[in-house]
Fold:
Amino acid sequence: MTRAGSEISVAGTGLIADCEGALYWPEQGMLVLADLHLEKGSSFAARGVLLPPYDTAATIDRMERVIARYAPRAVIALGDSFHDGHGPDRMGEKDRAALARLQHGRDWVWILGNHDDAPRPGIGGRFVPVLAIDRLFFRHEPTGAQGEIAGHLHPLARVAAAGHAISRRCFASDGTRLIMPAFGAYAGGLNVRHRAFAKVFGTRAFTAHLLGAGRLYSFAASACLRD
Structure:
């Protein structure tokens, strides 16, 4: 276990699952983030649902922390990086400048998601639908393929601890494939007992690695509580 997370293997590849919800591949110097949902607050505001407009800044602050921790050569954002296709247009100059600083000097790859299904100019990086490196495949929506690292489902686990039920974002993995937690400040979650996860893994015999303060806590998905 590292200072900020746990070692985890996917398809025989050693990775670090960080307690902030990022995934680091030491061999490739690559940091992976899923479902940033930047500008979700402004998207809701445009529809008359008022939320504090600080989600993008808060998410970028967390990105800065994990990038400083690992100093990656590359960053992969696994789709739904913006809450909608016009998110980049609404992004403030301060947040845009902060994002540009994080991208400087490293390869930055935006995987296309269902919320942001087309490349957007002016936010740097490059856009691809799927990225394959060695035995791993990075995409937004999980298919259950071997070696797949995906997002989209926003896994959340609910467990009993000290007489109370707690819910935490989590990594969901069976060692062959992995679904990452949503990284965005305003991103919601889907209980790992939902049938969508059994469909991806083909069974409930997978593990939920809950995000904690400085470490992960691992539970069999079958032992997690339903909503």
